[in-house]
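Here is the promised in-class demo. Please do not try to memorize the tokens; focus on the logic of going from shape to residues.
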């Protein structure tokens, strides 16, 4: 069952990537990394990024505890869906839950939230309505502050 769910999730992500537009982070004016520290002491290292209508895989990363993405500006109004998968890091044991939230940038207001704890698929999806020009951030948090997980995610805006 676990293999079937993993295969289904991988196939879905491949199909989405074939029929989607790709979003790239804009380079900052100066070539060095742009760093901004939030009140949660999360250091962000990326330039401005605007998401338009379509779908794209954003990327994969390894995190411990929590992670907040850089600000994403919505290029169009519509329904923003964040989807992806997570897996425990090699050597970690026991059940892992992952909270995924779409937050309004700068205020921290939670626009949508989900808690993924399905031991079979380890997939997640969360959606909210957004307006053109709105700035959001995606927040990820594991059930225990010291748990290390690999996360891959993408978005659809339609």
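The designed amino acids, position by position:
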């Amino acid at each position: 069952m676990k293999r079937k769910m993993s295969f289904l999730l991988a196939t879905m992500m491949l199909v989405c990537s074939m029929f989607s537009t790709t979003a790239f982070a804009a380079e900052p004016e100066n070539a060095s990394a742009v760093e901004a520290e939030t009140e949660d002491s999360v250091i962000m290292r990326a330039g401005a990024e605007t998401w338009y209508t379509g779908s794209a895989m954003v990327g994969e990363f390894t995190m411990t505890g929590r992670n907040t993405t850089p600000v994403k500006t919505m290029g169009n109004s519509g329904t923003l869906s964040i989807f992806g998968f997570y897996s425990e890091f090699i050597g970690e044991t026991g059940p892992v839950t992952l909270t995924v939230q779409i937050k309004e940038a700068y205020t921290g207001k939670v626009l949508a939230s989900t808690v993924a704890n399905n031991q079979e698929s380890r997939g997640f999806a969360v959606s909210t309505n957004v307006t053109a020009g709105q700035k959001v951030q995606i927040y990820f948090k594991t059930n225990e502050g010291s748990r290390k997980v690999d996360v891959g995610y993408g978005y659809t805006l339609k």
